[in-house]
Design brief:
The protein is built from no helices and 15 strands. It is mostly beta strands and 184 residues long. The strands form 4 sheets. It has a 4-stranded antiparallel sheet, with no helix packed on it. The chain has a 4-stranded antiparallel sheet with strand order 5-6-7-8, with no helix packed on it. A 4-stranded antiparallel sheet has the order 9-10-11-12, with no helix packed on it.
Length: 184
């Protein structure tokens, strides 16, 4: 992407700023790309696959990028080294697993609908290590888009299943931000 890119209608999605603020990861045409923000080089493609890669998230140490991909027919969580090498699949469940945030340098948070699929409609929050261990549910509350606080104690997440198009809706399915204390 060059300086002329601002005049083009590129379909760039899911931007993710590196922790040190020097790079941005994003999705273009279903692949993960990385660009230095100082414009010292063109964007480089990290993934090339028939599946749709999306939602890149930089690790706290900027060494890895976690992302969601449908490479095997449903969404799973993957991680790739920041230079585009060593792609690893972290989840293998038949339901969709969607990356949300990093829990630590060695663990990724994601949402899924594994255990409560017939009781609740909202997703559960899980975490999985980069070592490929079995994912574990993090909390009893259900919701979407969990994000860990900088000090690691709290997890903010969205609850509610109302369509976003219903702006004036005020019922029990209205989307709200909840906070969970991991030390209670």
């Amino acid at each position: 992407f060059s300086s002329q890119a601002k005049d083009k209608d590129y379909f760039v999605r899911y931007p993710s700023l590196s922790q040190d603020g020097s790079k941005i990861a994003f999705v273009y045409q279903g692949d993960i790309w990385v660009k230095n923000l100082d414009a010292s080089a063109a964007a480089s493609r990290l993934t090339i696959h028939e599946g749709y890669d999306r939602m890149p998230r930089w690790s706290p140490d900027d060494q890895n990028i976690a992302f969601t991909s449908n490479r095997y027919g449903h969404s799973d969580v993957y991680v790739i080294d920041q230079d585009g090498s060593n792609t690893r699949r972290l989840t293998y469940h038949s339901t969709s697993d969607v990356i949300s945030d990093w829990y630590s340098d060695q663990e990724v948070m994601f949402t899924t609908n594994r255990a409560f699929a017939q009781v609740e409609r909202e997703d559960e929050v899980y975490r999985v290590s980069l070592d490929g261990e079995t994912p574990h549910r993090m909390m009893d509350a259900v919701g979407y888009q969990p994000v860990r606080s900088p000090n690691g104690r709290f997890i903010a997440f969205v609850r509610g299943s109302c369509r976003q198009e219903r702006e004036a809706y005020k019922g029990p399915a209205n989307k709200e931000i909840w906070v969970s204390d991991t030390q209670k």
